[in-house]
Design goal:
mainly alpha; single chain; 0% strand; 228 residues; Tetracycline Repressor, domain 2; 10 helices; 2 domains
């Protein structure tokens, strides 16, 4: 008598949690908004919706997991790139800005959840999300303070400088993610160089008077390559 081997399903082998997260990320990339429910996720993963609830008590719990992972990954990449930039606080500041925008470009699904305006207050209430978020923004804030100490940034309130630089990076990330800067893909400058220039210019605009010369834009940024 031939014995049939049972194929282990994702739930029984502990893979369902990751499968649910993968399905949610797929829908986020498709829809650019967390407009799905757990029943959709269950259907995509081939299980009953009750199985999904064993891992995530609600949609908010699923989104919280995505946000916590996203902020933790952002903090890890940010820390690594800042260390590679060396001890110069200015170069570390530039590295932090570049990481933020490039993370949003390559991790769009997580970024959508991390900065969903409807979930902002919720994230501060959840310890796992708040801890990851504080680590990421704490690194950024400490770098700004280091630049102030070195005389590279003005002695303005930290909240103001942090908010200005964050706004610049976040705005750029949003425009790139929403397709408003798609013209860059066929331009001579390209997205990567544009992001680099934008981050440098944003930081240079706040540089303390007399600390360093203004950034020289590369010749490739000719009038013909500018957007409408």
């Amino acid at each position: 008598m031939k014995i049939r081997k049972k194929t282990p399903d994702a739930h029984h082998h502990g893979n369902l949690r990751e499968a649910v997260l993968a399905a949610a990320m797929s829908l986020l990339r498709q829809r650019q908004t967390p407009s799905f429910n757990l029943r959709e996720i269950a259907k995509m993963t081939g299980v009953g919706h009750s199985a999904v609830y064993r891992h995530f008590a609600s949609k908010d719990a699923l989104l919280a997991d995505i946000a916590a992972r996203g902020f933790a990954e952002l903090a890890q990449i940010q820390g690594r790139e800042m260390d590679l930039a060396g001890d110069d606080p200015w170069e570390r500041l530039i590295a932090a800005g570049l990481v933020y925008v490039n993370f949003a470009r390559t991790n769009r699904a997580a970024y959508i959840v991390m900065f969903d305006p409807t979930m902002r207050e919720r994230w501060t209430e959840l310890e796992n999300v708040r801890t990851a978020l504080d680590t990421s923004f704490g690194q950024f804030a400490r770098t700004i303070v280091a630049c102030q100490t070195a005389g590279l940034l003005p002695a303005a309130p930290l909240e103001i400088l942090t908010s200005i630089l964050w706004s610049a990076g976040h705005g750029l990330a949003q425009l790139l993610g929403s397709g408003h800067l798609n013209w860059l893909q066929s331009s001579a400058i390209g997205e990567d160089q544009f992001v680099s220039i934008a981050i440098h210019v944003s930081c240079e605009a706040l540089r303390a008077p007399g600390s360093r010369p203004w950034l020289e834009l590369p010749p490739s940024l000719a009038p013909a390559t500018r957007g409408p």
